């Protein structure tokens, strides 16, 4: 963990959440002063990025004053006391819209706050605003007709990713210490990779998704989630653990029966980790510019004395796993499909039973049960593998951040790589599908930059419920390859 704050070295713009909370508790800076500096940076830099699309100034000021008053009275602060954070637009927050990019929901404010956000606030965090998303969170870019396009702080002509693109851009640019997002098809991990920050997809069902829905939330339950999770993005791996400890655990009636604690990491020295890895394959090859960064990372791990083994876990069929993931993903996104569209899908399915998207919309419930059994079998396979290994390393996706591309339809988009053009819709989700399908935790850590200066993030998969093991590995890795680096155009401190 980070040591005591050096007041002379404390940089409010890019300090970690751990350092910032320590600085507020130690009275090196007040929560109100810190908040004022944060809004100065938002005023200066957000017009360029368009990362924060709704601001919470009045309430944030009141909460900061309350935090300072509580500290002055000696009241025990929370672990995020006075720490400014952002939240993804898709989470309900009292007095704000959760449009998910749908114009019909603009101005429809929620009377309640999502459980995950409440937990951040209960830990002392101060929400400064909500961050941009793609329409219905359905893209690896973040743009919509309500809020416009979010830019990548490393190159404004490129996307920060999606669907937590606004959050990743805000954290990278120093607009708040951390953020929370969601991840179904890489929506935390790919923006973390594109923006050079840390991101964590937790174990399935660890963090409550109550209040994560389009439109105002009245407390009603949403759909059960068999793939999607909520989790943090930050500038430090230690901050991921800090945030996750605040976010995780039982909610509602479940809290009457059980509580959660994060298991200690399996190891605290890099050379004690037993590491499996696959950083390229023939199904979705990795572009050479990020592949070169991964090779340097492997060399650094080898020099550190880590035990390493290349190859997929025994019995894992990548293509079959991708098919199951695709089916369950399409089953979720077509849950609210209208009757006409469902009839069209049924016709397509009857003429071609191998059409996964059509099958997800039209096949009987029995098909979903069989695919779910396959999903659970994949988890069991990974858990067996983790009896002899501690983490598994994967690319986050096949490319670094690419130029904005809002062309339609989405399945005709391509991404330029040094080796040529690649299909956007087919290839972007491949590498993140393994952890999503199994429900196991996955952490993305920045490990370097391409020759063009774009960030590269490594995906660290860990055993189910042992989120701390992957996060600790990410923290130790930063000592070898470097961690977060501020984008040059935003690196000036203290609102400058």
Description:
With 496 residues, this protein is of the alpha/beta class. 35% of the residues lie in helices and 14% in strands. The strands form 3 sheets. It has an 11-stranded mixed sheet, sandwiched between helices. The chain has a two-stranded antiparallel ribbon with strand order 4-5. It has a two-stranded antiparallel sheet with strand order 12-13. Strand 14 (442-449) and strand 15 form a beta hairpin. Helix 5 (165-172) packs parallel to helix 6 and helix 7 (237-247) packs antiparallel against helix 15 (467-481).
Features of the shown structure:
alpha/beta; 496 residues; 15 helices; 14% strand; eleven-stranded mixed beta sheet
Low-confidence stretches: none
How many beta-strand elements?
15
Structural class per helix/strand content?
alpha/beta
What general outline do the C-alpha atoms trace? globular
Q: What order do the strands of the largest sheet run in, or round the barrel if closed?
A: 1-3-2-6-8-7-14-15-11-9-10
What does the radius of gyration come to? 21 Å
Strand content: 5-15%
Order of helices and strands: HHEHEHEEEHEHEEHEHEHHHHEEEHHEEH
Report how far apart the termini are.
29 Å
Q: Count of helical segments? A: 15
Main pleated sheet: 11 strands, mixed
- Helix coverage percent of residues? 25-40%
Average pLDDT works out at: 96
């Amino acid at each position: 963990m980070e040591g005591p704050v050096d007041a002379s070295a404390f940089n409010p713009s890019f300090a970690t959440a751990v350092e910032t909370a320590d600085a507020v508790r130690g009275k090196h800076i007040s929560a109100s002063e810190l908040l004022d500096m944060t809004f100065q940076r938002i005023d200066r830099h957000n017009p360029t990025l368009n990362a924060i699309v709704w601001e919470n100034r009045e309430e944030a000021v009141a909460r900061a004053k309350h935090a300072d008053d509580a500290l002055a009275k000696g009241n025990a602060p929370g672990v995020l006391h006075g720490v400014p954070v952002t939240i993804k637009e898709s989470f309900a927050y009292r007095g704000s819209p959760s449009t998910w990019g749908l114009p019909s929901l603009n101005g429809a404010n929620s009377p309640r706050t999502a459980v995950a956000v409440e937990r951040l606030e209960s830990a002392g965090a101060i929400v400064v605003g909500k961050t941009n998303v793609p329409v219905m969170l359905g893209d690896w870019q973040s743009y919509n007709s309500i809020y416009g396009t979010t830019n990548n702080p490393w190159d404004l002509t490129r996307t920060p990713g999606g669907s937590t693109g606004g959050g990743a851009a805000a954290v990278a640019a120093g607009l708040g210490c951390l953020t929370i997002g969601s991840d179904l098809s890489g929506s935390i991990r790919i923006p973390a990779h594109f923006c050079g920050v840390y991101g964590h997809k937790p174990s399935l069902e660890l963090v409550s998704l109550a209040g994560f829905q389009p439109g105002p939330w009245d407390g009603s339950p949403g759909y059960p989630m068999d793939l999607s999770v909520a989790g943090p993005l930050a500038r430090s791996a230690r901050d991921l653990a800090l945030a996750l400890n605040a976010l995780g655990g039982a909610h509602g009636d479940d809290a009457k029966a059980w509580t959660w604690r994060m298991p200690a990491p399996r190891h605290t020295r890099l050379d004690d980790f037993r590491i499996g890895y696959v950083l390229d394959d023939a199904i979705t090859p990795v572009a050479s510019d990020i592949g070169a960064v991964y090779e340097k990372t492997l060399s650094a791990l080898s020099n550190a004395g880590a035990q390493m083994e290349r190859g997929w876990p025994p019995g894992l069929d990548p293509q079959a796993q991708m098919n199951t993931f695709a089916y369950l993903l399409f089953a979720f996104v077509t849950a609210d499909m209208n009757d006409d569209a469902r009839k069209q899908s049924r016709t397509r399915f009857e003429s071609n039973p191998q059409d996964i998207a059509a099958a997800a919309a039209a096949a009987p419930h029995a098909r979903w049960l069989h695919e779910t059994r396959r999903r659970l079998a994949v988890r069991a396979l990974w858990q067996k593998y983790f009896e002899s290994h501690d983490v598994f390393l994967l690319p986050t996706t096949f490319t670094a951040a690419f130029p904005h591309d809002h062309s339609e339809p989405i399945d005709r988009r391509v991404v330029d790589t040094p080796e040529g053009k690649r299909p956007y819709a087919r290839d972007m989700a491949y590498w993140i599908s393994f952890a999503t399908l199994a429900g196991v935790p996955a952490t993305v850590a920045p490990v370097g930059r391409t020759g063009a200066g774009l960030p590269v993030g490594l995906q660290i998969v860990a055993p189910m419920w042992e989120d701390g093991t992957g996060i600790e590995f990410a923290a130790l890795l930063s000592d070898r390859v470097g961690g977060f680096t501020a984008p040059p155009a935003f690196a000036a401190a203290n609102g400058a």
